[in-house]
Amino acid sequence: MPKRILQGTVVSDKSDKTVVVKVERRFTHPVMKKTVRMSKNYKAHDEANVHKVGDIVFIQESRPISKDKCWVVVTEAQAEAQA
Question: What is the rounded distance in angstroms from the CA atom of residue 21 to the CA atom of residue 77?
Answer without folding.
Answer: 19
